[in-house]
Write a structure and sequence with these properties.
313 residues, alpha+beta, four-stranded antiparallel beta sheet, 18% helix
């Protein structure tokens, strides 16, 4: 039975409700119930972490039936400014979802800390997001880093070879504790980062390409080598380039960018929201947040894919 069906957190994420991590939180806090196939409504049981969804099962979240999302997939990139926090928690004032002005569920591939800037992939495609974030897939993310003093060859070579860092937060690991390669408890553990590509681009500046994502990894690697990271900007996620996208702005991915991204992540192509010329059904709602150009207009607006060329994103 353990090998049958789909892990419950993965199933919940696939409906577009939330990320797998958020699904785990909902399950652990008792918000999720299961009615097994063939049972009547009175036979619901509280879900537990590790439960699996089987064909015919019904899932309730806060007492309401969970249904597969009928929305088309959303793929956008944003140039995150300093001070914006990568979280969907509405209680945090500067959360990235409100800043992006999107009321539809959305997640991001690769968290940037509050003081870092650059490329974020915003999507409601949970499967794609999970494939990009899974460390065992070795997907590349590239950063430009400025440090507090002149770089040395020894430091750059040490970065390339891998640095010892101490994990003090397991809530944002690409490879979660308890999965193969990690013990159940990661906080306080010393790890050696993977070998990576490092290129000096200035006296105090270098580019680095990572294939994993420990919390504040680049900052900790710099600290381990006796340097302090002053600025960190992500300029690439796999095939997606930040390019000349201005800080605080966002745009839809092109059809070709999505196709290539999914091919690299070994996914099949699906319908998506992009800038086509034709019309399509209403797919999601957004508000004109700080990154949408018009900061005075915060009303909810039904958004159609065909409107992309008329609206500044």
């Amino acid at each position: 039975m353990e090998n049958e069906g789909t892990r419950l957190n993965k199933y919940i994420s696939s409906t577009g409700l939330c990320s797998r991590r958020e699904a785990d939180r909902l399950i652990s806090e008792g918000h999720v119930e299961i009615i097994r196939g063939g049972a009547d409504d009175s036979e619901k049981t509280e879900a537990a972490l590790g439960d699996r969804f089987l064909p015919g099962d019904r899932i309730l979240v806060d007492g309401k039936p969970l249904k597969d999302s009928e929305d088309e997939k959303l793929y956008m990139m944003m140039n995150k400014p300093k001070g914006i926090i990568c979280t969907g928690d509405k209680r945090i004032k500067e959360n990235v979802v409100d800043y992006a002005g999107i009321t539809h569920y959305i997640s991001y591939a690769g968290r940037l800390d509050k003081d870092s800037t650059g490329l974020l992939l915003l999507t409601n495609d949970g499967d794609l997001n999970n494939k990009i974030m899974k460390a065992s897939n070795f997907h590349e993310k590239e950063y430009i880093v400025t440090v507090d003093k002149v770089l040395t060859t020894d430091f750059l070579n040490a970065m390339r070879a891998g640095m010892k860092i101490v994990i003090d937060d397991e809530s944002h690991l690409t490879l979660q504790p308890g999965t193969p390669g990690h013990p159940l408890k990661a906080v306080g553990m010393t790890v050696v980062t993977r070998p990576c590509k490092v290129t000096r681009t200035g006296a105090r500046k270098f580019s680095i390409v990572l294939t994993q994502g420990y919390n504040r990894q680049i900052r900790r690697m710099c600290e381990a080598g006796g340097f302090k990271a002053i600025e960190i900007q992500r300029i690439r996620i796999m095939n997606l380039q930040l390019g000349d996208l201005k800080e605080g702005r966002k745009r839809f991915l092109t059809a070709n960018e999505i196709k290539t991204l999914k091919e690299m992540a070994e996914m099949k192509e699906e319908r998506h929201i992009s800038p086509p010329s034709g019309r399509t059904k209403r797919v999601f709602k957004y508000t004109a947040g700080p990154s949408c150009g018009n900061t005075n207009n915060r009303r909810n607006t039904s958004y159609h894919a065909g409107q992309d060329r008329q609206r500044k994103i």
